[in-house]
Amino acid sequence: MMSQSNPIKSDTCVADLLRDYPAVIPVFLKHQMACVGCSMSSFETVASAACVYGIAPETLLGELRAAISPENTV
Fold it and tell me: pTM for this one?
């Protein structure tokens, strides 16, 4: 399990992120990213995946962090 202080960083592995925080799945789908279910997600970081899909890493990080924030969880 990832640290709760700042759990999502640019070097976070996408597969770990998807496993530990399923609430981020809609963010990847919104950007039409194939990371969900992709075998390469074990080798990709958030930053590298963002670059592959032409998304600013800071933008993706912000959206992923917002998806797991306490205000967005029920």
Answer: 0.86
